[in-house]
């Protein structure tokens, strides 16, 4: 087991109101099993990750992103309640960008990598990433911008359509959509209400991803590569099933990119190998922990969340060999598999055989069952078209503390 500093807590920060985000639960389990006190920001009292036996405490808080001073005040209040500087781990773009851009005002309360404050926004913005790739010599798909069908007259289908800034467009449309005809594209422009959309060349080939952690010299360790076999929606969406597989060529290309950008911290990259030229082309660069990060671990017991905690607390990151693993997201993969089956890309037998490769699930864990049960309950309510109990309440502007299952006896609710 890694020699973690159990006296330094961790706080999982998520500003996107998505109760089905499983990345935060992965952090809670990964660090909590090592004895690190883990806290988390939650959308509501019934967020599935908040039911983990490894959570020391949570704050019910939906602050939005429009008021920076309110966000800073809330984070300081959380830090005061925790009582000591804690490792801050954002799991969504909005949180990662906020921490980077307001890092000077957060350093007294939290521990986190200190990148160029402008860089995370540049890589998270889909079109500015395209410019960075061209400048740094990183292969990427051909890309253009358009506000309407007229400006997209020359587009070839299928095409991948993306929101330029996904953290600002939640609720209008998916951040990434595989579009097969002009009628579907027209619908996306209508929902975008005049905002520019990014149209990205659709590449054939295999999907890969890269997860890692860069220190202050932009040295990436650990560094993990893997294959995305199924996504939801099929072809352009969230990871539903993936496997960890070594790919030295991809790892080298990623390391060179981080050095050119002077990147620091955790990252989650999506790439596709183009069979036409054999190049790995960068599709997305997420400057934060990826939801599927628990796919990747090494034989020293290190994943990217553990690596960040070790480094930020002054501990050595042990050298390890990445493990071959499979990871499946229970609430996404059945629908993803159905989508691939409809396209003639997956048979029921092949789907069942792929389940034998799964080593870890996003929600189910034998030592921590409640998050899985609560996720299933909330999913059933959503499928039935009924609001979950407690939904519809006004946003919680001030962090409201709730003890977790790992909290000491006698700890009470409060601010």
Write the layout of secondary structure elements.
Blueprint: E1 10-13, H1 23-32, E2 38-42, E3 55-60, H2 68-82, E4 86-90, H3 93-101, E5 110-111, H4 119-124, H5 126-136, E6 143-146, E7 159-163, E8 176-179, H6 182-192, E9 197-201, E10 206-214, E11 220-232, E12 238-244, H7 248-261, E13 265-274, E14 279-286, H8 304-312, E15 326-328, H9 333-342, H10 348-354, E16 360-361, H11 370-383, E17 400-403
Parallel strand pairs: 1-2, 1-4, 2-3, 4-5, 15-16
Antiparallel strand pairs: 3-17, 6-9, 7-8, 7-9, 10-11, 10-13, 11-12, 12-15, 13-14
Short characterization:
The protein has 415 residues and is α/β, with parallel strands linked by helices. The protein has helices at 23-32, 68-82, 93-101, 119-124, 126-136, 182-192, 248-261, 304-312, 333-342, 348-354, 370-383, and strands spanning 10-13, 38-42, 55-60, 86-90, 110-111, 143-146, 159-163, 176-179, 197-201, 206-214, 220-232, 238-244, 265-274, 279-286, 326-328, 360-361, 400-403.
Radius of gyration: 21 Å
What percentage of residues falls in helices of 4 or more residues? 25-40%
So how many helices?
11
* Element string (H = helix, E = strand): EHEEHEHEHHEEEHEEEEHEEHEHHEHE
Mean pLDDT: 93
Assess the beta-strand content as a share of residues: 15-25%
Structural class: alpha/beta
Low-confidence stretches: none
* Ends distance: 35 Å
Number of DSSP strand runs: 17
